[in-house]
Structure formats: structure tokens, C-alpha cells
Amino acid sequence: MRNKIKKYVFIFLGTIFLILGAIGVILPILPTTPFLLLSAFLYLRSSKRLYHWLLNHKILGIYIYSYITYHAIDLKTKITSISLLWMTLIISMIIVSHIYITLLLTTIGLAVSFHLILLKTLSKAEMIRKREKNTYQMNLKNH
To answer: Would you say the C-alpha torsion 117, 118, 122, 128 has a positive or negative sign?
Structure first.
């Protein structure tokens, strides 16, 4: 019974993050890749069918594929993610205004920013080209 509830909660949350990621493709203020990665994580643990659908999606799948395969995201995602990260951290620091919380949030912000900066930067066209090339090569191996 618990596993069934957990499964449906994960599917629900995965769908919420999927919607946010899809909106992020259109709106530059929302980062796409982090939401899609969360969605993929939740789908992987709740529904293999939804997970495979997301990875193979014509538009959204490329972001997840590029992150998993090449540890790469596009420049828009990097800039938006780091900007939103620091905006929310600074707002939290102002609201809480406690030195230890501020130091903790600053450390977390620096670590996440460092991680994002170290990721390879690929244009969307490069991500699509690399995915198509890999798909083509895999098809050749299977025949």
C-alpha cells in the first residue's frame, strides 16, 4: 500500500516538475534542465514508461540526454539557474538574517554555482546533433 502511494506521489511530483521544465523552454526566467532532471528522477522511481517517454521526447528529452551523457547544459540554462539560485538565496538570507544560516546558504550557493559553471556548455543545436549522431551509431551497431 505504501509503495503504491509513493509511486503516485512521485508521478504527481514528476509531472509538476515536467510542466515547470516545459514552461522553462518558453520562458527564459525558468530553468529547464533542473526541473526536467527532477522529473526524470521521479519518473525513474515510479514509472519506467513515463521515464522512457520523457527521455525520448522530441523537445524535452534533449536536455536530460545532454546532461546525463555529456554533463552539458545550454548557456541559457546556466545563466538562469545561477541567477535564480542567488536571487532566492539572497532573499532567504535577508528574511532569516542569521549569520550561521547566511554562511550555510552562501556555501551551498557557491558549491552549486561552481558545479553549474563546470558543466560543459553546448548550444541546443550541438545537443541535438550529438544525440542524433549517437542514435545513428547505436542503430548501426544493432543491425
So the answer is: negative
